[in-house]
Specification:
The protein is an all-alpha fold and 51 residues long. The protein has a domain of 28 residues. The chain is built from one helix and no strands. The longest helix is centred in the middle third of the chain and has 49 residues. The protein is rod-shaped and about 70 Å long. The N and C termini lie far apart (75 Å).
């Protein structure tokens, strides 16, 4: 009974670590696209203000 509880806790910890890693990777990938989008908008605003 004690081994089952320890094993379950370890499994839960590993599952949470995997979920956090996946979310972090997704945010890192999305941040690149968000950064590019912001740069494009800044460029458009800058070009409009110069004209």
């Amino acid at each position: 009974m004690i081994r089952l509880t320890r094993s379950t806790k370890a499994q839960n910890l590993i599952e949470y670590a995997i979920v956090v890693a996946l979310i972090s990777a997704a945010l890192a990938l999305l941040s690149t696209y968000v950064f590019r989008s912001v740069q494009a908008e800044q460029k458009i605003v800058t070009e409009d203000s110069l004209n």
